[in-house]
């Protein structure tokens, strides 16, 4: 039997959004470990000093991803909002993109948020949270809705409100929000606008790989500066 495909070429998987639920479970599990394991948060959060040359800390670039699964222990709404947004956005995007494409989108958005923190934030200020990745999903949803001819006005308002909140509410990493938003939109462009045909998957993978290499290259150049 021929493989059933999603709107954007992924393998169709009927049923619940497994990747979305897995990401939510990982965030919840990490949050529990933050409470139970001393030093767990500090071991996996991210600050630019972990990817900048310095005499104290070794380079630990994986923190740019692991930090996206941690959340503030002093503000329970931090994880509550992110998991709620991930559930809503994932339920919409995962069936359209397919599981692997959705996972790639999410992780690239998280990486993009951390790269923006590296470029725009103070070296010793730690960040944590799935917000950068979630903003990437917002950016991707905007691109997908535009490509499908849907109304994006209300979505733009919602994105705008959340972007502004990042600048006016203390303790929020607006850098991660903007970085994730931009990278999520770029990743979605590669997925949604790849021409249909036998080369579609190769073009999508190539676009995502190019985006990853760009982010990795910026990180490497900054670490050598």
TrEMBL record:
It holds the Pfam family Rhomboid. The chain crosses the membrane at residues 18-37, 68-90, 102-120, 126-143, 155-172, 178-194, 201-221. InterPro entries: Peptidase_S54_rhomboid_dom, Rhomboid-like_sf, Rhomboid_protease_S54. It comes from the Bacteria. PANTHER family: PRESENILIN-ASSOCIATED RHOMBOID-LIKE PROTEIN, MITOCHONDRIAL (PTHR43731:SF14), RHOMBOID PROTEASE (PTHR43731). This is Rhomboid family membrane protein. GO terms for molecular function: serine-type endopeptidase activity. It is found in: Membrane. Residues 60-192 form the Peptidase S54 rhomboid domain. One of its GO terms (cellular component) is membrane. Belongs to the peptidase S54 family. It is a multi-pass membrane protein. Keywords: Hydrolase, Membrane, Transmembrane, Transmembrane helix.
